[in-house]
Specification:
- The protein is mainly α and 414 residues long.
- It has two domains: 163 residues, Type II secretion system (T2SS), domain F (Receptor-associated Protein, Up-down Bundle), CATH 1.20.81.30; 246 residues, Up-down Bundle (Receptor-associated Protein), CATH 1.20.81.
- The chain has 16 helices and three strands.
- It has a three-stranded antiparallel β-sheet with strand order 2-1-3.
- α12 packs antiparallel against α13.
Length: 414
């Protein structure tokens, strides 16, 4: 089992170094976090000399970590979790940013952290500094931090934000993992069909041209399709790329996204799935905001901007206006007809007993489970359906190629 040299800080902010065995870096980081240690740096003990490793423990940033430029979800989760832990241990926010900046693997996030330090040293609050980097930190981040600073519970709020980010990251990982296999299967199937069309069919076509045969209809169609694809494959690929580009550009407009969502929500079988994804995001954000002490109207305003759906954003806006006029949250939710009766009933109970954040958590857990189960069932059916489809297509191609051979056999026999 490989050995890793790590540098971490305990709850008191004191530096802790050591060498541990682990299956990989992620497993060791998780084990150290369970020991209430904030990982500052980790590197393979087999790739560094002991003297170099100990010099890293003096506080200089470790450049043995694998670096990347962009800022992904894992970078933000780790940043938020470490910041919450350090602040909860009594470390000042500037000192916390200094510590975290020494071990980030994202060069862009490193530059952003340095900018945050400079801006706060010039007198800006933390949320004001975050607002200058909206391309990385969402409205949810900024508004939760502002709420935490106002209430004096920034560490607690960041801890809840970290849990929200971790839940979302885990949920996204499950979705992506579930889609990898069918994507590979689909790409392989299309690649095999393309190879048969542009390589195998023309070979048979050359053979048939050497005989004076009246080719059957299926064979003529197959040869015509093969010839068309071979002649215009570059134009076909270019057309597909342009169509995808224009489509993506259109759905990134407000009206385009609205029409695309209308189409998705009306799809048979899959419409409920896409609606469930939106409700999952809505309930996740609302539970985090309400639990962090953000007023309900302000929570709705933040969710409206960050829920990721034009249609649901408009519904949330109307719900916010109705709540502002004095209606309970559950009433406009029911009137919108976007939310299922179960969701409305749980929100009603949450309002009555004063546990709205907990009810949103339960709604979120239900819809995460629903989405995971739905994907599992659909993907279970996808493989046999794909195999049947491939079998039919290849079967038709084989029939189209062998019908002339059967004709030649009959002619030769007679």
């Amino acid at each position: 089992m490989p050995r890793f040299m790590y540098i971490a800080r305990n709850r008191d902010g004191k530096k802790v170094t050591g060498v541990e065995e682990g299956t990989n870096e992620e497993e060791l980081i998780g084990r150290l976090q369970n020991m209430e240690l904030t990982v500052v740096s980790i590197m393979s003990a087999g790739n560094v000399e002991l003297g170099t490793a100990m010099r890293e423990a003096t506080g200089r940033p470790s450049f043995a970590l694998k670096r990347h430029f962009g800022v992904n979800a894992n970078d933000l989760v780790l940043f938020c979790r470490q910041l919450a832990t350090l602040l909860g241990s009594g470390v000042t926010i500037l000192a916390s940013l200094e510590t975290i900046g020494k071990q980030v693997t994202s060069t862009r996030l490193y530059a952003v952290i340095k900018n945050l330090q400079k801006e706060m040293e010039q007198g800006l609050s933390f949320h004001e500094a975050l607002e200058k980097h909206k391309d990385i930190f969402s409205e949810l981040w900024i508004n939760l931090v502002e709420s935490g600073e106002a209430s004096g519970n920034l560490a607690v709020v960041l801890d809840r934000l970290a849990m929200y980010l971790e839940r979302n990251a885990e949920f996204r990982r499950k979705l992506i993992s579930a889609l990898i296999y069918p994507s590979i299967l689909l790409a392989g199937s299309l690649g095999a069909l393309l190879f048969l069309t542009i390589k195998i069919v023309p070979t048979f076509a050359e053979v048939f041209r050497g005989f004076d045969l009246d080719l059957p209809g299926p064979t003529k169609v197959l040869m015509s399709v093969s010839e068309f694809i071979r002649k215009f494959i570059i134009l076909i690929c270019a057309g597909i790329i342009v169509a995808i580009y224009l489509f993506r550009k259109y759905i990134h407009t407000h009206e385009g996204q609205r029409q695309w969502e209308h189409f998705l929500f009306r799809l048979p079988l899959f419409g409920d799935f896409f609606r469930a994804l939106c409700v999952e995001r809505f309930s996740s954000e609302m539970s985090t905001l309400v639990e962090s002490g953000v007023p309900i109207l302000y929570s709705l305003e933040i969710t409206e901007k960050s829920v990721g759906s034009v249609i649901l954003g408009e519904i949330v806006h109307q719900i916010k206006e109705d709540v502002r006029s004095g209606k309970p949250l559950s009433v406009p939710m029911e009137q919108s007809q976007f939310f299922e009766p179960m969701v409305v009933q749980m929100v009603t109970i949450g309002e009555e007993i004063g546990e709205l954040s907990q009810m949103f958590k339960r709604i979120n857990a239900f819809y995460q489970e629903y989405v995971s189960t739905f994907l599992a069932r659909i993907l279970t059916l996808f493989e046999p359906m794909m195999l049947i489809f491939m079998g039919l297509v290849v079967g038709m191609m084989v029939v189209g190629m062998f019908l002339p051979i059967f004709q030649m056999t009959k002619i030769g026999g007679s």
